[in-house]
Design brief:
Blueprint lengths: L1 H12 L94 H15 L17 E2 L5 E5 L4 H6 L6 H12 L8 E4 L13 H18 L3 E4 L2 H8 L5 H4 L4 E3 L2 E3 L5 H6 L4 H17 L23
Parallel strand pairs: 2-3, 2-4
Antiparallel strand pairs: 1-3, 5-6
Helix pairs in contact: 1-5, 2-5
This protein binds iron/sulfur cluster.
Iron/sulfur cluster binds next to helix 5.
């Protein structure tokens, strides 16, 4: 456990959060306002896969230790909003657009660790979002996944159901995951904040920073072979890049030895369906890379629709 805690702390030290104001983006903002990185610590240097896509990050100071809660989460209220008990009961009247999740896959140890993480999140009052949430939304899926998707934060339907990506954007993400030969059960879906920002606004810097230890714990225990960040806020939170999502989508970066390939957020695709082919390209890039990394694709028949199917993994 001490080693695991140490890995979490190193992971936290390797990630920076800054948020860019809406005005920085102008009226034709790429997606939504998103965290702007501080220069990265050397442990989290981001390197693109090819010379023409190299992005260098300046070194930076790590998050102040006082802002990093222990993985066991001693709740510390940082909000002036009146605290209310965490509610983690799902609304019985709510029917998600996506099918109920089947049994959780993954090793027994990873499932137990994930249960502990979810319990800590359910009791969390570390930032002001706890005061307005209905359900915490820690994430869902395989506890030992090859592929991890990271989005921005829960919306209204996610807040009511306690599940990530269950509205229209979630339906689309479910289709994308299926087209990649995975499912919501075999992959894992998480967000950078676990409680809904009111009005579906972009999470604020203090909220992202407060929730970061949970995300880092999640990544460390899930041990994905590859992370796909969905949209600019998630991409900036993980990679600390300054570019817009259009400049980095489909390109490979590395965060703490884990390949990261950003793509558009499904909610953006609902507003901009003409960009769906770009996400399809990114999806194929991700699957090919996963195969290179030795991942087995749970539903290889899905890959027959690829323009250039990945080779069979070598035995
Ligand atoms: S968003 Fe994260 S840090 Fe804030 S209250 Fe929810 S779980 Fe805690």
């Amino acid at each position: 456990m001490a080693e695991s805690d140490d890995r979490v702390r190193r992971a936290i030290d390797a990630i920076r959060v800054h948020v860019r104001s809406e005005s920085d983006f102008g009226s034709d903002a790429i997606e939504r306002a998103a965290p702007r990185p501080a220069p990265m610590a050397s442990t989290a240097t981001v390197v693109a896969a090819s010379p023409e896509t190299t992005i260098t990050n300046e070194p930076t100071a790590p998050l102040a230790p006082s802002r990093v809660p222990a993985p066991s989460n001693e709740p510390v209220a940082t909000s002036s909003a009146p605290a209310r008990p965490a509610v983690d009961a799902r609304s019985p009247a709510f029917v998600p657009r996506v099918a109920p999740l089947g049994a959780r896959l993954g090793s027994a140890e990873a499932r137990a660790e994930l249960d502990r993480l979810e319990a800590d999140v359910a009791a969390c009052t570390l930032c002001k979002l706890h005061a307005t949430r209905t359900c915490t939304v820690p994430g869902e899926g395989n506890a030992s996944p090859d592929l991890l998707f990271i989005g921005e934060g829960p919306g209204e339907e996610e807040d009511r159901s306690g599940r990530p990506f269950v509205g229209r954007a979630g339906e689309l993400l479910t289709k994308i995951i299926g087209a990649m030969g995975f499912s919501r059960e075999t992959a894992h879906i998480a967000n950078i904040v676990k409680c809904r920002p009111p009005g579906n606004r972009v999470p604020e810097p203090d909220e992202i920073a407060a929730c970061q230890p949970y995300l880092m714990r999640q990544i460390v225990l899930l041990k994905p072979k590859l992370i796909c960040t969905l949209g600019l806020p998630a991409t900036r939170t993980i990679l600390g890049i300054t570019q817009g999502i259009k400049a980095v989508r489909g390109r490979e970066f590395v965060w703490n030895d884990i390949p990261v390939i950003p793509t558009f957020h499904p909610a953006y695709l609902l507003r901009n369906p003409d960009d769906k082919p770009l996400v399809w390209q990114d999806a194929q890039t991700i699957v090919r890379r996963l195969v290179q990394l030795g991942a087995s694709i749970p539903n290889p028949d899905a890959l027959k629709k690829f323009k250039d199917p990945p080779p069979e993994p070598s035995a």
